[in-house]
Amino acid sequence: MTDSWVALEPGADPAERARTLRRAHATFTEAGTVPRPVRPVVADSWRRSARAGVGPDGAACVELADGDLGAYRAEHPLARVMPLFRELMSTFALDGEHLIAVCDAHGRLLWVEGHPATRRRAGRMNFVPGARWAESAVGTNAPGTAVAVDRAVQVFQAEHFARRVQRWTCAAAPVHDPRTGRVLGAVDVTGGDGLAHPHSLGFVQAVARAAESHLSLLIPDRPAEGTAELTALGRDEAQLRTGGRRIRLSRRHSEILVLLARHPEGLTGDALLCALYEDESVTPVTLRAELARLRGLLGPGLLASRPYRLTVPVESDVAVVERRLAAGAVTAAATAYTGPLLPASQAPAVVRLRRRLADGLRTALIARRDPDLLADWAHAPWGEDDLDVWRALAATRPTAAVRARLTALESELTAPAVTVRRDHGHRAPAITVSPRSGTGGTRPRPQPR
C-alpha cells in the first residue's frame, strides 16, 4: 500500500479486503495479536481501544440530549463553521447517500446530517448528536481516531473496533484552533464502501483546512498590539507567538517563560534558580547559559536582566483559566483548559502551579455538578483515574458505563500497593505502583532504596 493512511490501495477488491479484516479482527479480539494486512494506524487504534476496556460488542452512549445538547452546541467554536460545512459537504452527502458529522475534541458528536435513510440506519448504532464516539468509548472509528491521533484518517468496514459499526466506512479530519493549534474537534463523512478512496480523505482534509481559515477570520479578542501569547497547557514544549513569529520552546525554556510570564516585575537569578531546579548543586552559571540561549532564540530586546524579566506583556493560557475561575465562569475555564501545565516538567515552581491550577478547576467542576463538564474531565487523559470526579459524574449521570468505570476505579483503590523490582541483574530503583486518584497526570515515581 502506497499510503498507510488510505484504507484501500488502487485496484484492491473491497469485498476481499473486508473478509480479510474480519478474520484479523477476530484474531485480535481472541488472541490480542494483529495480523497483516491491518494498517499500522488501525492496529495502534485497536490496541488503544483494548487498553481502554472497550469491548467489540459495545455501543456508543448518548450523553447530551435536548436542551443540554443545544446549549453546548451553541457555545462550541465549531458552531461558527457549520454553515461552511453544510455548504461544502451537503450535496456530496445527499448524492452519495452519506452523512456528515462534526464532533468535539472528546469525540462527542455535535451534528449528524445528510441522507435521511442513512441517518435512520446510523441511528440504530447511536451515531447521533450527543453520543460519545471517542476511541475510549467505542473503539476505532474515523472521528474518534482523528481526534486521538490528530490527523485525518479513513476507517473501512471491519477496521472499526465495534462489530455493529463494521458495515460502515468513514473518513474524518481534525479541525484546529487557528491561534493556539489545539484540536477543536473533527469533521467526518460516513457511508458506504465508496468512501474508502483517497479522494474522500483529501476531501475531509480540505474541508477541515477551509474551516480553520474561516475561524481565523472570526475569532475575536486578539491580544493588544505588542502582546505576546504563551501556550503551555497540555504540552511539554510551550509555544510563544510574538511579533508575527511562532516560536516553539525547549522544555527548560518553556519553564522559564511560564515563570517570567507570571512575574512581569521580574525574578532574581537566585529566585529563578530555586524555582527551576530541585538539585541544589546546579550553579548560577548553568542558569545564565540557559537564559543566554533563550535570549538568542527570542531575539533582541525581549528578555532583560537584573532582574530577569520579559519586556513585552504576555497573555498565557494559564492566566486565562485562572481569570475565568476567579470570575466563576467554570464552563469557560474548562473550555480553555487543554491539559496539565507542562506535564513532564519537574521544576518545583511549575509543579506547584500545575497542581494548583488543576485542583482549582476540578474542585469547581465538582461543586458545579454539571454532568457535561464532569464527563469532559473524566474522559480526558488527565481525568481518567480521577476518583472524585467519577463519583460526582456518577451522581449526576448514573449511566451503566459511568457506574462500571467508577466500580473499577474504587476496586483499584482498595488494592494494596505492589513493589516491582525491574533490575534484571543490574542496579535499578524499586518502583512503587499504587492506584491513582485526585489530579490526573500523575505517574509512579522511583522510590529510594
Polypeptide structure, described:
The chain is an alpha+beta fold and 449 residues long. Among the domains are: 14-218, GAF domain (Beta-Lactamase, 2-Layer Sandwich); 228-316, Winged helix-like DNA-binding domain superfamily/Winged helix DNA-binding domain (Arc Repressor Mutant, subunit A, Orthogonal Bundle), CATH 1.10.10.10. The chain has 17 helices and 14 strands. It has helices spanning 14-31, 40-51, 66-75, 82-96, 116-123, 135-138, 142-149, 198-218, 251-262, 269-276, 284-298, 317-326, 330-336, 348-368, 371-378, 387-396, 400-414; strands at residues 99-104, 109-114, 153-156, 169-176, 183-191, 228-231, 239-242, 245-248, 303-304, 309-310, 314-316, 418-421, 430-433, 446-447. The protein has a 5-stranded antiparallel sheet, with helices on both faces. A 4-stranded mixed sheet has the order 8-7-6-11. A hairpin with an 8-residue loop joins strand 12 and strand 13 (430-433). The longest helix has 21 residues, at 198-218. It is globular. It starts with 13 loop residues before the first helix and ends with a strand. The model is unreliable at 419-437 and 439-449 (pLDDT under 50). Residues 421-449 are annotated as: Disordered. This is GAF domain-containing protein. Pfam families: GAF (PF01590). It comes from Streptomyces flavalbus. Keywords: DNA-binding.
